[in-house]
TrEMBL record:
InterPro entries: DUF1935, Glyco_hydro_b, Smp-1-like_sf
Superkingdom in the source lineage: Eukaryota
Source organism phylogeny: Eukaryota, Discoba, Euglenozoa, Kinetoplastea, Metakinetoplastina
Organism: Angomonas deanei
Ranges for domain DUF1935: 31-117
Protein name, entry field: DUF1935 domain-containing protein
Length: 124
């Protein structure tokens, strides 16, 4: 199933859908510019940018007990003294890129920033 096929089956923001491969698709930003794909069998998260005009910047804040590996091109660091794990990912237009492998623990918060392509030269 392609991302376009998954999107056609989607409805409201935040609604999840799973296929036989254990992949889950969620709308990550209104109005559906960015999608988070979770492959549970591999424990991997991916993001798909469904725009032509914006570079999407995803910043994730994960609990200090999270057991994860950052997948390129994402960047990861630990904030001290809290121990929070931070990840940042730049997703170019119409691209799907990996972010992490593993299991977030203690909760997480994702934030998104849409940067016009004309202004995103320093990001890509």
């Amino acid at each position: 199933m392609t991302i376009d096929e998954k999107k056609r089956k989607k409805g409201k923001k935040g609604k999840e859908e799973k296929n036989a491969a254990g992949e889950e698709l969620q709308v990550a930003s209104p109005p559906g510019f960015l999608y988070r794909l979770v492959n549970h069998s591999q424990g991997r998260w991916y993001f798909y940018n469904d725009t032509k005009d914006y570079v999407m910047v995803v910043t994730g804040y994960f609990g200090p007990k999270s057991l994860m590996t950052c997948l390129p091109p994402a960047k990861m660091w630990r904030e001290m003294p809290s121990g929070l794990v931070l990840m940042e990912l730049v997703v170019e237009p119409l691209k799907t890129v990996p972010m992490l492998e593993g299991e977030p623990k203690d909760g997480f918060d994702l934030r998104f920033n849409a940067v016009p392509v004309k202004e995103a030269g320093h990001l890509v």
